[in-house]
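Exercise 7. Predict the structure of CubicO group peptidase (Beta-lactamase class C family) from Dokdonella fugitiva.
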Amino acid sequence: MRRASALVASLALASAHAASLDPARAARIDADVQAILARTHTPGAVVAVVQDDRVVYRKAYGLRDRERGLAVDTGTPFEIGSITKQFTAAAILQLQEAHKLDIDARLATILPDAPHAGEVTFRQLLSHTSGLPEYLEGDDVEAWASKPHTFDEIIARVAGKPLVFAPGSRMAYCNTGYVLLGRVIEVVSHERYRDYVRKHLLRRAGMTHTATVADEPHLAGMAVGYRVDHGRSERAPVIEDSVGGAAGHLVSTVDDMIRWSRALARGEIVGGASVRLMTTATPLAEGSADYGLGLFVDRVRDQPRIGHTGGSFGFTSANEFFPAQHVRLVALTNNTTSPEPGETITNAIFDDLFPAIAAAADTPVADEPAPVTARIKALFDDVQHDRVDATTLAPKLAAKMQAGLAHRLAALFAPYGAPTRTLYKGTRTERGLEWYDYVLAFGPGSRLAFSIGLDDAGRIASLSYG
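Solution. The predicted structure, encoded as tokens:
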């Protein structure tokens, strides 16, 4: 379990006028960032490294507007998508500190008419453990989300749908919970969500360059968002401010992201007890989630990590803190693809800063089963190309693949390209299957855990990835 005290003690940032990385390490970072931008067809980015409370690297790359040939600078605003959620979580915790709500109370105490309001708590909404269905899904989601909608129209997309699972039993990332929390903030505070955030969060943190999607037409130097479609980069639509809302409508700069992290860690936004809630993994009926309240609490390269990524129709971002190394990595990009350029960049920079940790994580386990490795490679190639070899699959999995799963996986994995390495990570028995765990590497910062479960007949009965 990661200790929030480490976050509080180590996140506080000193002046942005800081020492620099050694030239060799800076050169590695620069090369990797440029390689990732080229590989993902991302026009531009801004990245920052904060080591031991000092900004030691900050650099802008590429174009904020490709059509007009306008360059990114370190003050360029980008949409930060779901990083907005930590602001929403902090606002809810401020209201709890003011004794205006209790995060363990039911949603019905504030929004009695909301879907499943009597079954879910504010804590479950904050931690993605509510089991509510997702409002941002469906074949129409892009066209629908590009137009303004009222709160009632947004909630109508999930009204009448059953819970996906019993509240508190497991975690599934859900934007719906945060839209509801945004409305809770408005009802309790008697302020519009955006006004509450500006007054009680942004001003306290000294964030003078953070706004919302609705403000984009008036923001000097605003980046244009792009997406990759069939291997080609094109302008992306803009998510409507009212649709993203408390789940993801903020626009910010890399320096304002650093200011936010500094203020949160120093207790200038919420108290230490609330910071610990945000940065502690949420208990489940069995085990714990990899999410606190508004922040992921997970591991990368087997190292503790606390932070969040963000993605909208044309942007990806990452704001990640590694408490064991006392380092914060921030990346803002103006492209949406898979794997996300924002998190890929922060992963690559971590490897560049700590090559021994990266090398250890990329060491395969002994006694690799060569025939299974060959099957993993063949399966992943089939998945990327939307092919189904039913002879290698158990009947249930073959049916799922032929019914559309293969097509969905192809859309997800094709942009990764061919793996550069296939790393064997061990074997385990689980749910009556013999599982073989691998990590697929695709270049700087890009790793994918990929496992297959074989049944007694040696057929692939299940697969997992992440």
